Each structure stands twice: as structure tokens, then as C-alpha cells.
Amino acid sequence: MFNPLDKRAARIPVIIIIIIIPCSILAINYLPTLIRIYNDIFQAPYLYQIADNNLRIELVADGLAQPTSMTFVDEDTILVLEKDTGMIRVVNNGTLEKNPALAVRVDPNAERGLLGIDILERGIGQLKDDDFVFIYLTEETNENGKGDSVRNRVYRYNWNGTDLSNPVLLLDLPGEPGPYHNGGKIKVGPDEQLYVVIGDLTSPSTILQNHVLDSDAIPNNTSVIIRIDPLNGNPSSDNPFKNQSQNDLIDNFSLDYYYAYGIRNSFGLSFDPITGSLWDTENGEDKFDETNLVKPGFNSGWSKIMGPISRNKNFSENDLVMLNNSYYSDPKFSWFKPIGVTDLEFYNSSRLGNKFSNNIFVGGINAGDLYFFKIDDNRTAIRIDPSMSGHTDLTDSIADPQDDLSPALFARGFGGRITDIETGPDGYVYVLTYSDGRLYRIVN
After folding, report:
1. Is the dihedral of CA 330, 297, 179, 420 positive or negative?
2. Distance between CA 203 and CA 208 in Å, rounded?
3. Among 136, 129, 122, 244, which residue's Cα sits nearest to residue 187?
4. How confident is the model at residue 31 (pLDDT cuts 50, 70, 90)?
5. Buried-most residue among 133, 230, 252, 401 (CB within 10 A)?
6. Spatial CB neighbours of 404, under 8 Å, sequence gap ≥ 6
7. DSSP 177
8. pLDDT tens, 287-327?
9. pLDDT of 123-142, one tens digit each?
């Protein structure tokens, strides 16, 4: 099991700094910078606040370069993606190995790069090289005459315990115009199907972004969650739009691969361990980041609706393009002022206490805050417990600018900004941060 570096927030030195610096406007202005410098020099985590005094945050590993996603391949080993370098790094027993498990060429422009990873373990007792690791990346193409010079692609690799080999292309998705809103999170579901999310690539102009169907609005594999068989890349047999066509304009374009649509951009997918249902996060434009329950056929509403319909003045559900077997529902929680919502994780353990079990942690990249939400008894909504702070500001499941966020805030101060959250085999919560290249875990 892990033996992480236990370098917690250095509170005593910070107190000393506060004491010896004169109480001046200059000192106040520069204090955050001095704290960051101290933390960087001594490789300590940034100052944090954690809601539960029985828990603490440890530094597991650092030295990563803009990490985006991670997956556990066994109890001691984590594979971590570096966005721009194209390297899949190995963290083994808390040590960042020098040699990567794989290095690939990526287009690192803006939000492009090495973006998503997950593993399918093919059964206890089988050879380790039977395990599949899936990678989502953006790469340049040399296929003249085929349109995009940049593509978002999903590959399957064999994992042999040391490195990745035998790449098989499963999905070939558009990469342009971009270079933003590539999505990239991938997850193997409890049904052993592979779920892949891609955003609108900054070009929301098709029926998948709820534009009325005409010759310019033909679906183009953007703003969707795709669900495929991980063994062969074929669309899952019970996808909600299988074998349907709405109009002669799209007769030659398959809707078979789609599980959900109307998604602006997403960096988070997770499955409820009790119901098996998929949840996602979705990034708003100038307002309303979202957390959604995603049932088959979900239309999230973009580009007509973000946040609850009641908060949208210009459009209603009647303005959405509803494919056969589709449905719309409001987000289960939304932030009026975007937090840059990234990953969410159903905590499938009781190691930190039963109150956290089977509920969700959600991260943001703007401020590095970590949120915690309880799911209601029906497993269909987020329940805000006002007793946590004595406030009821969030009981409408909307975080307005004036609201007290303390009932939902679990930890603050991840200065490197959160990109991924996972439950480890040891039952602890692992948090990956982007700009400082660090991996933390929350322990008791």
C-alpha cells in the first residue's frame, strides 16, 4: 500500500512569517505570495481548510507536469496523464517513476492534449496483460483529404504491469475548430461499457447543440457522451438512439453511438455505486456550471439552456431539439458563478466514515475547492444539509453569488487547481492538481 510523503500544510512557519512581517499594506499584499514561495521551496501542500477535523490531507507525489487524469492499475500503482508532454507517468508506492508507461505525440494547444484514462480489469486470476487501459488524446493527423488536421481519439492499450503496448484505435472524433471544449474524460461503467465525453469544440451549430435541423446542423460527434463496447469500439447494443433517423438529412449519419447530448463541455464522469447511474459535470459559459444525473437519452440543453430552466429568460424546453427517446432535466446542482467544475467522484468506501460513503466529491479548477454532496434516498437528487452551517442558502441546489457555500465546501486551498478525484484501493480519496503537478490523498 502507499507510503506517501506526509507533508502537510506548514502552519507554524506561516504563523512565524505573519509575526515577523510588519503589519503594513505591503505585507498584507505580499503575504499570499510568500506563503506560496515557502510551500514551493519545501514541497508542502498549499494552505488548506478541511471541513472535518478528523481528516487531513497528505502529499502523495509531486513533479508532474500539468496532470489531467489518473487511474489505479493495482493497489500500489497509479497511471497519471500529463497533458502537454504526452507522457503517462507511473506513481508507484508514492514515488514518481522516471520512465513513463507510455509516451505519445499530442497536440497540446489550449485544452487539447492527453486528457482521459481508465482501466478495464478483465477478471480475477487472468493474466495481467489481459487488462485494458483506455486513453483519450488529441493528436495531429497526416491523413490528407480527410478534413481535420487534428483529431480527438480513444485508444485501447494492453497493460503488462510495467508499460502500455498494442494500441487499438476505438474512436476517431473531430478536433476542430477548437482548440477548446475537447472534453476528454472516459469511464468504464458497471456495465463494462466505455463512456466518452466530448464538448462542442467551440462550434455549437448542430442538432446535438439543440439547433433546428437543416443542411448545416447535421450531427458531428460533438457535445455528446458516447457509449461503446470497449473490446471492439462498436456502439453499445442498447444505446438510446440506436437505429433511428429523424430526417433524410441525417439518414447517412449514425446516431447509434450517442448516450447523451447537448453538453457544452465536461471534465467529470462517475457512476453511482448503488444504482449504476452515470453523473457528469458540465462547464457553463459565463454562468451556471452544472452537476447532472445522466440517464440514457439525456439532453443537457446546450446551447439554449445552462442551469435550471427557471433561470433562463430566453429559452424553454420547447426550444430544444428532442430526438426520439431523449429527455431534458435540470441540473442536480449548479453554480451561478462558474467555478471551472472538473471531476466528480462517487466515494465508494467507508474508510473516511459512513457519512461519506456512496456520496460525491466535486472539484473545481478556478480556485482549487473541493465540494462534498450527499445524494438523497432516491439516488436522484443532491441533498443539502443546512445543519452543517445553520444556513439554508443552497437548498434550492443553486449556488448564487450571495449564498453561503459552507454546507457544500469540503476542503479549500488546493493551489494547484483540481483536475481529477478518485477513490483509491486503500479507501482514501485522491486529488490531482494541475498547475503544481501534485497528487494528494485525504486520510483519517
Report:
1. positive
2. 11
3. 136
4. very low
5. 230
6. 389, 391, 393, 394
7. S
8. 999 999 999 999 999 999 999 999 999 999 999 999 999 99
9. 544 445 568 999 999 999 87
Residue among 180, 252, 263, 201 nearest 226 (CA): 263
Q: Note the pLDDT of residue 123.
A: 55
- When computed from its CA atoms, the radius of gyration of the chain, rounded to whole angstroms, is 22
* Nearest-angstrom CA–CA distance, 290 and 308: 9
118 residue type, one letter: D
- Angle value at C-alpha 176, between 172 and 182, nearest 5 degrees: 70
Ramachandran area for residue 155 (φ above 0: left; ψ -120 to 50: alpha; else beta): beta
Query: Nearest to residue 267, comparing CAs of 361, 181, 208?
Result: 181
Compute the distance between CA of residue 321 and CA of residue 294 in angstroms, rounded to an integer: 17
Residue where the block lists cell 437519452: 297
Are 403 and 394 contacting, i.e. CB atoms less than 8 angstroms apart? yes
pLDDT at 390: 53
Residue 157 is predicted with a pLDDT of 97
Helix (H, G, I), strand (E, B) or coil at 34: helix
Whole-number Å distance between alpha carbons of 335 and 332: 11
- Residue 301, C-beta contacts closer than 8 angstroms, at least 6 positions apart: 210, 262, 309, 320, 328
Per-residue DSSP letters for 345-390?
Answer: EE----TT-GGGTT-EEEEESSS--EEEEEE-TTSSSEE--GGGTT
User: What average pLDDT score do residues 147-155 get?
Assistant: 90
Is residue 61 within 8 A of residue 440, CB to CB? The reply is no
Q: Which three cell numbers stand for residue 78?
A: 497509479
CA distance 292 to 284: 13
pTM above 0.85, yes or no: yes
Nearest to 184 by CA among 102, 111, 131: 111
β-strand partners of 215: none
First-residue to last-residue Cα distance in the chain: 16
Residue 105's CB is within 10 A of a number of other CB atoms, namely 10
| Antiparallel, parallel or unpaired: β 258-261 and 298-299 | parallel
Alpha-carbon distance 61 to 436, whole Å?
A: 11
H-helix or E-strand spanning residue 253: none
Residues of the chain above pLDDT 90, percent = 75
Q: How do beta strands 360-364 and 341-346 pair?
A: antiparallel
* Separation of alpha carbons 334 and 408, rounded Å: 12
Give the CA distances from residue 345 to residues 56, 209, 228, in Å, rounded to whole numbers and listed in that order: 18, 26, 21
